User: What shape does this take?
Amino acid sequence: MAAPVVDILMYHSVSNAEGPTSIAPEIFAEQMAAIAEAGVKVISLDDLLSAKAGKTTLPKQSIIITFDDGFKNFAETAWPVMEKFGFSPIVYVPTGWVAKAENWRGANEPARRLMNWAEIREMSDAGVSIGSHAVSHPDLTTLPDDALLAELSQSRKTLEDRLGKPIPHFAPPYGLTTLEVRSKIAKEYKSSVGTRLGRASPDDDIFDLPRLEMFYFADLGRWRDHLAQKGALYLNRRRLLRSVRETISKPWERV
Assistant: This one.
């Protein structure tokens, strides 16, 4: 029997801003509606961890919805759509940028503002999982050990202090890690997602989970095909093109 397949969807901003890290609100709403229509179950990272530990069984096909950066338009635009469908996502927050406008390497222009602490608490209380996206949104692979450990531990502790809940999940900025970085992430967290393009399963390394960048599925027909398990050829082609692009691009140009 084939292993269960988990699509971990990656979003950043739900807005009409330029660039691949923004999805137009109407397209996002259509993508969410297509999930509901297809009857694919939306699960959590905790569900995936439980299945990996052999404590639960996953459906043949399921989805985890993730958002990087914690932009304000998550609360204003994305969450009301997901709440309507009963979908519970996870938002990865860079704690040093809370309530500020993005200004890290590769940020959008015009800059997008992040949620403030009151909004993050409101989302958490409403059922949204909150994860860590480090403190200052750095490339973790460039940091000395002391700075790396500070980014990992301080962000978790700040979120736990602010929200009064454990923060077991992490997403490295830019998706950039190494084996050494992931070994340090594993000392602070229970999972880590990246930007490696692909579908996940309980057999995957829980600290190097692949995701689907949803701007690749802005075409609703492609997204419906994927949900119907008919999109393997398209995904393989995107993966090949992505590999070529990453070979010739600078790391900070990756999504």
